[in-house]
Design brief:
579 residues, alpha/beta, Nucleotidyltransferase, domain 5, 5 domains, six-stranded mixed sheet
Length: 579
């Protein structure tokens, strides 16, 4: 226990903004003691709080009973409004309000669980409450207002800002249940005003309606599971379909549910009515509706029109709202969940026998029979299959690979260093790698299962013949060019790709006439190699011209080889004069 001085120290530190743990260390008590007295008043500490709260509760009790005695059929909503006005007018408060603890003090605990729901009728109170001062319980009235332990004069109470009466709706309704039971005042009958509307009828094949809902079911072990419903109904025949899943629908699943519905109906209507659900609508944008990317692509692919309704609007889409209610209170009535596969199979059976197989209460016709007349008027749907692409940022490791799900995928040699970032796109078992800066496609791999596997770089599908053909086109497909490339294929089959690549660079640097002379020179001397062709060209022209072709580390080799060819031409009587 703590003394009054420590209690007041705790309240002072709380008012200064200290947290409970700091207060406990400052006062020298344990944390549980601080937590016990943190929200309680000095009256509670001295043992007077219970009495003062009960006294104040009796004041409100007397006021409410007086209101009920004047009008026995007042609703709890009106009584709560009048009590709030009365409390504010007289600067009264009971702190946190009349909670469960204060209700229990009346001794009627048996009624605590009753009437714990929101009222369905909201009645505006247009009367002004002009109450006298608080009654002391014995009928006398005075000019003194009780506020906590202190008594303040009527003048001081007028200067004090009205605090009001803090109370939650559920607590007040439970409190009124006790008062009505104690004094015998009846609760007013519930008055429900049904909205009148006219159901629209549309031609066959023109209109369908879509809505979503959710319901809680129990499985075979008694555990609760929330299920999410997507439903579509053909407005003319009342033919209906719905699918269920265990997670809330996202934009992609919303589109997939449409495909299931169109497959079930064998077609689609010209226009579909919707709520403004977040799975399809991003923003209204002042009347210019912005749809989600997935739904926009699907809508344009299928070609149907969209009509967005207001929420719970029976005038435009009352048919589908009734379908959702029918599904909840018919199919799911006492339904026991055994798994999604069995659930969706049960749905198809129920739709065939009950949902679409019984007489509709509005049309007095069987939807399945009416559907046979509407089906030829439906528009054929296009089987929309959108690739699901997953993206991920990966880091190139020291082995020149990127890792995904425990597997390693090789990267092109000398393109990245350790620590570089790349973007992966995974779709339908294929991994595509893109440069994260330029967005350039780098390489692709087949996604591997399991862990610890390594995917090497795939060889290009292009054959040597294709490369040789392209190179011949650059060399004007001359006879010498054909001979030269065939010899390269024969003598250097492993390096055809590198040889053709070098010849292409040569064609982009030198004139075609001198290249043809170089090829003829190489054929005559049996120098069947692109490096020999380039060396001869360097001997005929400055080596600086080939600096974009020759790697820097091999420049000395080309200089030496060009010098050798120049000397050789001089020895055999060539027209080249060396330096």
């Amino acid at each position: 226990m703590i003394d009054l001085e420590k209690f007041r120290r705790i309240k002072t530190l709380k008012k200064d903004g200290y947290v409970q743990r700091s207060v406990a260390a400052d006062v020298g008590v344990n944390l549980k003691t601080v937590q016990r007295w943190w929200h309680r008043s000095e009256d509670d500490f001295l043992g007077n709080g219970r009495t003062n709260r009960d006294d104040r509760l009796n004041v409100y009790k007397d006021f409410l009973v007086g209101e009920l005695s004047r009008d026995r059929l007042l609703t709890d909503t009106v009584l709560r409004e009048r009590l709030l006005k009365h409390a504010a007018a007289n600067s009264m408060t009971v702190g946190a309000g009349v909670g469960d603890e204060r209700i229990a003090s009346l001794g009627e605990k048996i009624a605590l669980g009753h009437s714990n729901r929101k009222d369905h009728v909201a009645i505006e109170s247009d009367c002004d409450v002009t109450c006298s001062d608080i009654s002391g319980g014995d009928g006398d009235t005075g000019s003194v207002v009780t506020y906590g332990k202190n008594e303040i004069s009527d003048d001081e109470s007028k200067q004090k800002k009205p605090v009001g009466f803090s109370i939650s709706d559920p607590s007040f309704r439970r409190y009124m249940v006790l008062l009505r039971l104690e004094f015998g005042y009846p609760k007013p009958p519930l008055q429900v005003v049904h909205r009148k509307y006219a159901m629209r009828e549309s031609p066959a094949g023109e209109e369908s309606q879509v809505d979503m809902g959710q319901i809680v079911v129990r499985d075979m072990y008694g555990k609760s599971l929330r299920l999410y419903i997507f439903a579509m109904v053909l407005s003319c025949s009342r033919m209906k379909f719905f699918t269920v899943q265990s997670e809330a629908f996202n934009a992609r699943q919303f589109v997939e549910a449409h495909d299931l519905s169109f497959r079930y109906f064998g077609g689609r209507t010209s226009i579909i009515f919707y709520d403004q659900d977040r799975t399809m609508v991003v923003s209204e944008n002042a009347g210019n509706i912005i749809y989600t990317k997935e739904f926009t692509e699907y809508k344009e692919h299928e070609g149907f029109d969209v009509y967005l309704c207001n929420k719970s609007d029976p005038d435009t889409k009352g048919k589908i709202e009734n379908v959702i209610r029918y599904i909840k209170y018919n199919f799911f009535d006492r339904y026991e969940f055994y798994g999604m596969e069995r659930l969706n199979s049960d749905i198809l059976i129920w739709l065939d026998k009950v949902g679409n197989g019984r007489v509709h209460q509005t049309t007095l016709k069987v939807p399945k029979e009416e559907y046979q007349r509407e089906r030829p008027l439906l528009t054929m749907y296009k089987n929309y299959e959108k690739k699901v692409v997953r993206e991920r940022i990966a880091t190139v490791d020291g082995l020149n690979t990127v890792r995904l799900n425990g597997n390693r995928y090789a990267m092109p040699k000398d393109k990245y260093i350790q620590g570089d970032k790349v973007r992966l796109e995974i779709s339908e078992g294929v991994i595509k790698v893109f440069d994260i800066v330029t967005g350039e496609f780098v390489v692709k791999h087949a996604e591997m299962e399991g862990k610890g596997n390594y995917a090497a770089l795939r060889k290009s599908n292009r054959t040597h013949e294709a490369l040789v053909f392209e190179t011949l086109e650059l060399l004007d497909n001359t006879t010498d060019a054909n001979v030269f490339l065939k010899r390269i294929q024969s003598e250097k089959p492993r390096y055809v790709r590198q040889q053709c690549s070098m010849i292409k660079k040569v064609c982009n640097t030198y004139d075609s006439i001198i290249i043809q002379s170089g090829i003829t020179y190489c054929i005559e001397r049996n120098l069947n190699c692109a490096t020999e062709l380039l060396s001869w060209l360097c001997s005929r022209e400055s080596i600086e011209k080939a600096k974009d072709i020759i790697p820097r580390r091999t420049t000395p080799h080309y200089k030496e080889r060009a010098s050798q060819l120049s000397k050789y031409d001089s020895l055999i009587g060539g027209d080249y004069e060396g330096d």
